[in-house]
Amino acid sequence: MDESGIKKQNWDVKETELFLEILKELDMKKCLDGRKVRNNKLFKVAHRRMTAAGYHRSVDQLKFRWKLLKSAYYKCKREPDSPAPTKIQGWWRYEKTMVAIMESRHSLVGAGVNSDRNDEVTEDSDGDASMLHWPQPCPDNSTHNLDLIIKMDPEMDTQLKIGFIGAGNMAFGIAKGILSGNVLPVNVKVSAPSSRNLGRFQEMGVATTHSNVEVVCGSDLVFVAVKPHLVPVVLNEISQHVTDRHIIVSVAAGVTLATLEELLPENSVAIRLMPNLPCVVQEGALLFARGSHAKPEDGALLRSLLHRCGLVEEGPEAWIDIHTGVSGSGVAFVYLFAEALAEGAVKMGMPSALAHSIAAQTVLGAGRLLRDSGKHPAQLRSEVCTPGGTTIYGLHTLEQGGVRASTMSAVESATERARELGRKSATAGSRK
Ligand SMILES: NC(=O)c1ccc[n+]([C@@H]2O[C@H](COP(=O)([O-])OP(=O)(O)OC[C@H]3O[C@@H](n4cnc5c(N)ncnc54)[C@H](OP(=O)(O)O)[C@@H]3O)[C@@H](O)[C@H]2O)c1
Question: Which CATH number is associated with domain 156-317?
Fold first, then answer.
């Protein structure tokens, strides 16, 4: 047992997901060569990032967690048809990222998938970090790449200048998340035509202006957070000031990377980010896609900046509209459900205010349990169902009402609508 008492504290889903995302990013830099000195540097960077995110594990604890995850991966590979009994609770959540990390490494070195020797470890046993061989030889490994990793460390965020064009709810939510990390308010500037939304940025110590050009000239990374129909207007205005040092991140729904790249100077680095409203309480779900000139490290930088806003994922642009359906609009679907829960309670005689606060807490608690337990929703649902009890009766009523089918259709409709708006914005952008 670790004397600090930290060792026995279980890893939750968010912590493990963040850890794997950090390792995935570092892996992408292709600076991993299997030598112990490099391994140590790698895990030290991961350690600093985890600490910055509020997770206080020692370097050895991180190494041991990696070893457990790797063991689970090999076990699943060896026994693909078995239910994969692993020591990692909620393994299914991490499997995709682990496969991405391990397969990219296997393709580089041609290693066999059955080669792990250390998979009979338990979460309670003491990790022997020296047994760990995280990286494998990588063809284009270089000291330069290692420097890049160090530069991507959150401490480096303190140097980065960040701009927001648009000062609305989304800009505010993202700015709040970024400022709760390593970015200093003096390095952030926000613009909007009126002053009505600027006060709350000033309260956070952020400089404000009415000039979009001033924001671009003073920033390395610029969030374009205006309404979608204003994106062409804004990009036309700033375009001549965008240089190859800039990363332009648009959060505008439906505005495609092709449109952004067409409106920006040639070879501009553009990223399309789709946040959702809970960013304002640092519980967002964010998905981004990189444009044709945005490098993996640009994505890694964005991910590192945004990790305080909630869950941050990268994917192909085609998924952005799906994300809009499931998460951007999905927030409203959950509100509808919460409202209906409360109204059911009111119908049964509970005072409205109490019913609404209980419904809100129920949605929050169920969401946190779902995220943090690592369990599949069906499993959690069955755990609440006593045979012949109240919940199974209620669930039967919901199924009779077609709640599952209509929710799936709602995500489908919202996704289709996002695609349709994207096509319209592309047509509008090309007319400019
Ligand atoms: N809200 C969401 O849940 C959500 C989710 C995903 C994506 N998004 C996207 O985020 C973007 C912003 O949404 P929002 O909800 O934050 O909108 P919002 O609250 O209406 O804010 C829009 C901001 O843009 C500013 N603005 C208007 N014209 C401008 C110009 N020419 N130059 C610079 N700034 C200008 C406005 O200035 P004033 O302050 O002077 O009015 C305002 O601060 C939209 O494209 C939306 O699609 C929103």
Answer: 3.40.50.720
